[in-house]
């Protein structure tokens, strides 16, 4: 039987409990591992809905692991999930789908039937719509998922294919186009993508009145797609052009009307205003006519139909300016910064050390750091110092020791310290990703441009959760399972290779 694991990005919605419940109730094979990736930017001080849902799923017999990705979007969350997986296949499902009891059995059959050259198998999506009325604009948009290509609401990828293309491009911050980008790169790498028979149910989740307006941010992602894949990417991805040309015409008419009115050209203003009104009315009617046409829906469509065209144009221009200012390299971007753990990695570990005189560098540390600086790479320090929370040393002592490390090994471009203890929620204490994300932000680089070097699993976990690369340099305290789980392991600092 072909092994598979399941990765679920989430922001803690109640639907996560439903999804995990349907996954636990499967009549087919159980996944090797379920990785739930909490992509909320902070940590709860009260009851954590993700921890609660995972605990319930474990009690139902699922092997569930919860990790956190720091609020960087679904692409980053999925990367943080699949990089923890060792199965041959990784099935991505969204936290708002429900899995019929036959899903796992049908998925296993699809994967077993996949030839060696198949890099991904797409599932089928069913979107239930109201039976007693016509669907709203939002409901019709969700129903389009049933015919969409390569969507990761239910999509299984061969882990080898994900490794070859370095997973999802984390420069796509929304649940939009990141799935098409990945699939295009997988196909370009020589893999095939097939449709399978496994089926997931995608209910229409509630949406705010202005949800369709917020979706216009995706116009900037379309620009990024063009920059990365060329102007024919829509044809290859079976993606429609949409209404952007009409939105441009509507926005131009509105701008002409406003400008003419301000300059006293009333006839031109009137003509342009009528053109804007006609285009807006046509757009609104296209959205109203297929729907229930009740008062709330009509009001929602009229407001958003007037606001969407300028929003779409704005986000399109924003994307164009961003790409022209900084043309995006292929994914993944090259390493620009190396972040080091302190104790056990750069200097010999002295537990809860507050004495600068006890600092002793590890052999090869100065040579490695000097070589990296000579290449123009930024250097950072990311260190847990829970002794402060435990009352065993002060922050001033931590800073004094860090200053001594810099004196012996050269300056650091950023120093990130977590003084949090292990008994309270923390976004910064490794294995949480906070310090790595803060270091990347301070250095002005993407997390994916960072390489983290450490001596224990918490260092590797923090890197993977943040979207950085990781190298483990084991010591006597490194556990065997940490070595086995690390993506790259070297025997000493001198063997660290930065691509």
From TrEMBL:
InterPro entries documented for this protein: Glyco_trans_2-like, HAD-like_sf, HAD-SF_hydro_IA, HAD-SF_hydro_IIIA, HAD_sf, Heptose_bisP_phosphatase, Nucleotide-diphossugar_trans
Domain of life: Bacteria
Keyword vocabulary terms for this entry: Hydrolase
Gene Ontology BP annotations: carbohydrate metabolic process
Glycosyltransferase 2-like domain residues: 5-115
Pfam families according to UniProt: Glycos_transf_2 (PF00535), Hydrolase_like (PF13242)
Annotated protein name in UniProt: HAD superfamily hydrolase (TIGR01662 family)
Source species: Kineococcus aurantiacus
Tagged with keyword Coiled coil: no
């Amino acid at each position: 039987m072909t092994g598979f694991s399941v990765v679920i990005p989430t922001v803690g919605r109640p639907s996560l409990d439903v999804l995990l419940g349907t996954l636990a109730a499967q009549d087919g094979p159980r996944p090797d591992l379920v990785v739930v990736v909490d992509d909320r930017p902070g940590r709860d001080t009260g009851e954590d809905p993700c921890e609660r849902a995972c605990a319930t799923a474990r009690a139902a017999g699922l092997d569930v692991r919860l990790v956190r990705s720091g609020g960087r979007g679904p692409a980053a969350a999925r990367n943080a999930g699949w990089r923890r997986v060792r199965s041959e296949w990784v099935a991505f499902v969204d936290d708002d789908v429900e899995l019929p009891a036959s899903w796992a059995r049908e998925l296993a059959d699809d994967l077993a039937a996949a030839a060696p050259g198949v890099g991904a198998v797409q599932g089928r999506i069913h979107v239930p719509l109201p039976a007693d009325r016509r669907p709203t604009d939002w409901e019709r948009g969700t129903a389009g998922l049933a015919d969409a290509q390569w969507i990761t609401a239910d999509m299984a990828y061969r882990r080898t294919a994900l490794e070859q293309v370095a997973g999802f491009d984390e420069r796509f911050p929304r649940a939009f186009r990141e799935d098409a980008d990945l699939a295009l790169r997988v196909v370009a790498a020589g893999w095939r993508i097939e449709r399978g028979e496994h089926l997931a149910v995608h209910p229409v989740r509630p949406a705010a009145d202005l949800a369709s307006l917020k979706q216009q941010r995706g116009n900037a992602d379309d620009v990024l797609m063009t920059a990365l894949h060329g102007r024919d990417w829509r044809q290859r991805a079976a993606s429609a052009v949409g209404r952007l040309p009409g939105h441009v015409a509507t926005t131009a008419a509105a701008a002409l009307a406003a400008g003419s009115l301000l300059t006293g050209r009333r006839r031109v203003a009137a003509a342009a205003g009528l053109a804007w009104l006609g285009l807006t009315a046509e757009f609104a009617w296209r959205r109203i006519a297929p729907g229930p046409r009740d008062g709330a829906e009509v009001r929602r469509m009229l407001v958003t139909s007037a606001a969407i065209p300028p929003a779409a144009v704005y986000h399109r221009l924003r994307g164009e300016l961003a790409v022209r200012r900084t043309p995006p390299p292929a994914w993944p971007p090259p390493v620009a910064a190396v972040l080091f753990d302190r104790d056990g990695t750069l200097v010999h570990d002295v537990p809860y050390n507050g004495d600068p005189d006890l600092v002793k560098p590890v052999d090869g540390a100065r040579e490695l750091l000097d070589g990296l600086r000579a290449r123009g790479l930024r250097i950072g320090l990311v260190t847990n110092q829970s002794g402060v929370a435990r009352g065993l040393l002060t922050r001033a002592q931590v800073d004094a020791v860090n200053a001594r490390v810099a004196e012996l090994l050269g300056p650091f471009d950023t120093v990130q310290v977590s003084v949090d203890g292990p008994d309270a929620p923390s976004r910064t204490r490794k294995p949480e990703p906070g310090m790595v994300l803060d270091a990347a932000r301070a250095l002005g680089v993407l997390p994916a441009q960072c390489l983290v070097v450490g001596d224990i699993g918490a260092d590797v976990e923090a890197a993977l959760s943040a979207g950085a690369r990781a190298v483990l340099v084991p010591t006597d305290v490194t556990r065997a399972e940490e070595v086995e789980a690390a993506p790259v392991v070297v025997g000493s600092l001198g063997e660290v290779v930065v691509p």
